[in-house]
Structure prediction request, 249 residues.
Amino acid sequence: MAACLIVQAALLFWRLDLLPAWGDEYFTLDTSRQPLAKIAAIVRGDIHPPLYYILVHYWMQLPGPASLLVKARAFSGVWALASTVLLHRLWCRDARFVLLWSLSPCLILYGRMGRSYTLQLFLGCLALYWGMSLVRDPRRRVALWMYSASAALLLYTHYLPALAIILAVASFLFYRRAWIALAAPLAIMTLAYAPWLIDMQAAFGRVLHADPYAGISRCRSLWARACRPGSRSAGCCSRRRWRLCCGAL
Prediction:
């Protein structure tokens, strides 16, 4: 494990200034250098939660001669290493897996970017581990609290991985009819996330109406028109719906 971490660290932190910054990294740098109140205001107008940018804000204030871009990328590298340790401790101790994971080109690529990817990875692995522990034993209070805390932190980092894990764990708990284990974490996460719930709803609205995702809204309106009762026969309506499904696929 120690050898894998040394090799992975060398790959993650070597020449972090080798590639120029790209668009999303510029957003990280411009946002994270602002005061905390302004960071919250900026990300409220965007589609991201604030936790990553707040952490990078404090990370950039650490002493050192490195540029802000290198510091932001090094922050991602730290979380990539932490994810490797977490996976080894909680998920898989097979040396072959750890070696392949440490040398993963995808992990190295995204671990060298000044974005929240590796922080999402760390919190996602943590939330999924404790969520699965809660599914196995719904009466385990430590799992309930740890799952609630890690999932809430993941929600403050990025919406999509957090919602995916929360829905998956909730589905399993619903299937097992573990009602307390299902309701308690959702209540805790809702309370913890209450200051940002409205902003999350607004972010989803902006995403659905953005150019890359506008097709979702158009498909929804086309589906509604296809299913609207009218003069056309049911068979024709059915064919239109099938054409829409095939087009969506």
The CA atoms of residues 103 and 138 lie 36 Å apart. The chain has a mean pLDDT of 85. Residues 210-248 form one domain.
